[in-house]
Amino acid sequence: MFFPGGFAQDPASMALGAGLLNQIPPGGQAPVQNDEALASIPGADLVKRLLDQYGIDSSMLITFGMLLTIFNSFTGLYAFFLGLIYQAMNFFAAYFLSKAHIRSNDESFDYVMEYLARNEISTDSRLFHVSTQQDIIPRKHKAMFYDGATFDGINRPDSEFVQADEYGPKLKFIPASAKKHYFFFQRTLFIIERTIEHTPTHNNNGMGARADDETVDIWTVGRNPQALRAFLAHCRILFMKQQQYKTVLHTCDSYDMRWSASQTRPIRSLDSVVMTFKDKNRLLTDIAEYLSPKTKAWYQEQGLPYRRGYLFYGLPGTGKTSLTTAIAGAFNLKLFILSLGSQNLHDNYVQELFMSLPPRAIVLLEDVDSANVDRDYGYGMSHDEDIDSEDDEEVDKVLNRGSNQRRPSNVSLSGLLNAIDGVGSAEGRVLIMTTNRRESLDSALIRPGRVDMEIEFGRANNEVLEQIFIQLYSGKKQQMSSLALEQEEKKSEKQIVEEAAQKQEIEELAKQFAQMVPEATFTPAEVQNFLLPRKRDPKLAIKELPEWLEVQLDNIKKSEEKEKRKRSKFLQRRQKWLKQRKQMKLLNHDDSDDDSIDSRRRRRRSRDLEDIAEEGDDKKKEEQEGEKSEEKKDDGEKKDEKESSVPEIKTETAEGDDSKSSKKSEEGDWSDIETSRPASRPTETSK
Ligand SMILES: Nc1ncnc2c1ncn2[C@@H]1O[C@H](COP(=O)(O)OP(=O)(O)OP(=O)(O)O)[C@@H](O)[C@H]1O
């Protein structure tokens, strides 16, 4: 690296150069004693003979040696001076520059990336990676640029058209890290450097390798960090303005189990989520009241923890998640989504995640039942410990174990409860839990204080059907371009009259549509699914509706019949199982007294398990029997059975919840059976 080193690198050439240099006479003639000089260098003789063989002048060797020596001297000198410059720069950086260091897991990283992208600072990088992968991590997307795409293009709602053309995904260029970018901000020079940190291959859980972690360093000249702070504040405002019309979704980073902003989406308007006016109004009023500064002060005065929880329950595709996203947008709250089913998640991580929530945030625990959080152990009934239970519910779980395909969660109920409202849990947040199976939730999880309001999402009733139709054919646009807004303002009187007539027509068609579709039969998602392919022609939708209805109602009928058969099989198996268990108990009572309790229990358990296995063998037979007996039943009987078995869906607040505490009737409960269509059909939609 240094000057002396440069000379020391090649002793042979040095000897050659130095030795032969002395031999050159002032006139530049080749020395007479060349051969002697060459003979003093090991191996030179061999080289000379080789050169002579090919008719090459051996004095070339001397010239080459000299050039090599001179070159070495220069590289040594270059390295030496470079070292000096680096040392001087380090000294200068330490004493005359201000520096900010930001890690990519902090939001401020996004602020800076936003600035870089907006000012196209990193796009001129001569060193970059090329990728065709679409945006998995939008944060990195900020520093990327697409072939021929401007910053504004990337940030448009239809940015996917910028990221791809008719041939597929466009090339995406990612400025290489460890490259410095220079730019001026408010007439001050800034230097910015992105670095990819290669972190260890295993995380705290000992699982998985993490994608590279990024950091960014920003320097500015001067010992006063004021300019640097001003720059960062500017980046923040820029970022916030950009996010104003977007909802930022945070999810749990599976590597370090911290929140990380994973996606930004255009804000979803509350109007676009259709539900009964009463429910929507009740919910929004409650959230608005909770988020008002006066309420916060009141909570503090009363010494109450400032938290609010909601439970959204009902069939899939009824708008639970959509409403949560819309609320986040409407109240300008950050959205944090946690799935308890994640295998990396343990009690302590859940607690840390809840503790690290910012004050104004919604935390969405999606499909909270899917985590199968049981009271004392992670999700439960992984073994057969409760086979002896007298509790009908436990027996049901054992019998239905086969139908639960979900992997057990590592989060215990007590861990989750602690996280939600433990001492360290963050205040000011809104907790929204969603579930398709309210009845399977532990009552402790939804008790008042943890869940303050419940909203049921059901199949579309008349009001909802009408609204979905109107929303689709004449609903407000989510995002209006400035051009569209301008045109809106410039409308002539004639246009306004025409639009009013059109609106009226849509409203009439909507009424007609709602009357044609049977109430409480389809979820909003199903209705939307029918309307979307006909989104440009409301009359066509009305015309094609009867045909669609015929097919759908036929499918529903078939699935309900299948449901009945399943239920009947289940009840038969259960009856048999209970009978066998009683017999086992009687037998065990007669067992010799000198047996230990443990061994008796073990024996009993294994017998019970054998019985269950036998049940599996008998399954086919029973199915046939079940089908036959089903056919024989008269209509009146069927009706009675259905009435007694359809579980009641709770529609009010969690107060006085008794869905778990009241034992399910031996014959009547079959909600745990997996069904192709949800078991709660037919049901009331909204209260
Ligand atoms: N009430 C509704 N209003 C408007 N759109 C709806 C409504 N319900 C469902 N949708 C549409 O159906 C799709 C699924 O909705 P969403 O994910 O909100 O349902 P969900 O109840 O959360 O379902 P899951 O329980 O499976 O999570 C979305 O595209 C959404 O736009």
TrEMBL record:
Predominant location category = mitochondrion
Q: Has the keyword Translocase been applied to this entry?
A: no
List keywords of the entry alphabetically: ATP-binding, Hydrolase, Membrane, Mitochondrion, Mitochondrion inner membrane, Nucleotide-binding, Transmembrane, Transmembrane helix
Q: Which SUPFAM superfamilies match?
A: P-loop containing nucleoside triphosphate hydrolases
Q: So which domain of life are we looking at?
A: Eukaryota
InterPro entries assigned to the protein according to its UniProt record, in alphabetical order: AAA+_ATPase (IPR003593), AAA_lid_BCS1 (IPR057495), ATPase_AAA_core (IPR003959), ATPase_AAA_CS (IPR003960), BCS1_N (IPR014851), Mitochondrial_chaperone_BCS1 (IPR050747), P-loop_NTPase (IPR027417)
Domain AAA+ ATPase: start-end pairs: 306-461
The portions of this protein that span the membrane are 54-71
Molecular function (GO) terms for this protein are: ATP binding; ATP hydrolysis activity
Question: Annotated region Disordered: where?
Answer: 579-687
Q: Name one Pfam family in it.
A: AAA
Compositional bias per record (Basic and acidic residues), positions renumbered to this chain:
617-667
Residue intervals of the BCS1 N-terminal domain = 72-273
Membrane topology per the record?
Answer: Single-pass membrane protein
Reactions that this protein is recorded to catalyse:
ATP + H2O = ADP + phosphate + H(+)
Q: Which GO terms describe its cellular component?
A: mitochondrial inner membrane
Localisation per UniProt entry: Mitochondrion inner membrane
Supply the PANTHER family for this chain: BCS1 AAA-TYPE ATPASE (PTHR23070)
Q: What family does the Swiss-Prot or TrEMBL record give for this protein?
A: Belongs to the AAA ATPase family. BCS1 subfamily.
User: What name does the UniProt record give this protein?
Assistant: Mitochondrial chaperone BCS1
Species of provenance: Orbilia brochopaga
